[in-house]
Fold:
Amino acid sequence: MKEEIGAEARLFRKSDKPSEDLSCNWHYKKSPSYNDFASTDAAGKWCIFVSSAEVDEEWSKIRDAVAGDQLMCAKVSTARRTMSRDGHVICVYTRDWADREDLMRAREVLRSLGFLEELGYKRDIDTRSGKYGLHEWHLRA
Structure:
């Protein structure tokens, strides 16, 4: 009985590190100034793809920027979500994909944090409609 409980605890292990957390699919962080954010058809996100070896360090940069009101909201896939995938995704949200100035402001914050490679921006409406592949990106920058 005790061995079964130990195995179950490992199977659903909770951790503050996305690379180790098997208790949920995503870790979320909302800015104190934007605590009312919810995904809508107008919302969208910058998508950052990172390896399991890098995810904890890269997520901490994003999480700190959100906590410091530099970014509105973000989420990162956990070990549970990536079990059948290669690596993790960090999504950094903006309220309105039509607000190009805000999209580029958020992108500049990401650059200042060291995310210098080209990133894709995806509208939530496209995610919900199942738009993936070559034409999934609303913007690349």
Remarks:
- The CA atoms of residues 92 and 124 lie 12 Å apart.
- Strands lie at 26-30, 44-50, 73-77, 88-94, 120-123, 139-140.
